[in-house]
Design goal:
Blueprint (H helix, E strand, L loop, with lengths): L26 H7 L5 H10 L3 H11 L3 H19 L4 H5 L12 H13 L5 H11 L3 H21 L7
Helix pairs in contact: 2-3, 2-8, 4-7, 4-8, 6-7, 6-8
Length: about 160
């Protein structure tokens, strides 16, 4: 199991307040998938604080790690599916209007399609998302992770209206 400890002069931790709207993935989930334990939580807290230097440092680590990217994108898809009762088509087909507040990247849409196609199967969406992230290039993983973070933070700030503003 590996961990990333970001050494800075400040801390990003919203474990004790209401900025974290949803429970982040648990360490046992990350260990099972071979992900870097705690990286998704650190990154989410960094994005909530809008700290660009820390966000960039953590994303540079994340883009080279398909398992951790898979945990993040799976979590974003799960939160979205729980929010709307299913994964909205707009996240998978790119049919949002030009003036929409949120535009998922092509790589996020591809991984979201894997999530949606495998939801409820024996291996479930987790394995499909991990495999889809492994098939992506580092830059595609970075784009998918960035979209997942924007989605999670958008829900935290705008609630269910986020995708349909």
């Amino acid at each position: 199991m590996s961990r990333i400890v970001l050494a800075t002069d400040h801390v990003h931790d919203h474990g004790g307040d209401d900025r974290r709207r949803w429970a982040t993935p648990m360490s046992y989930e990350e260990e099972r998938e071979g992900a870097i334990v705690g990286l998704v939580t650190q990154l989410y807290d960094t994005v909530l604080d809008d700290c660009q230097p820390c966000r960039q440092q953590l994303l540079n680590v994340l883009k080279d790690d398909p398992a951790t990217t898979g945990i993040l994108v799976h979590w974003a898809c799960l939160v979205t599916a729980e929010t709307y009762g299913e994964l909205p088509e707009v996240l998978m087909e790119g049919s949002e209007p030009a003036d929409a507040p949120f535009h998922p990247t092509a790589s996020f849409r591809k991984v979201a399609q894997a999530y949606d196609a495998n939801w409820g199967t024996v291996d479930g969406a987790t394995g499909a998302v991990r495999e889809a992230c492994a098939a992506c290039t580092a830059e595609e993983r970075l784009a998918a992770a960035t979209t997942a973070l924007e989605l999670l933070v958008g829900f935290a700030e705008f609630d269910v209206d986020f995708l349909y503003q």
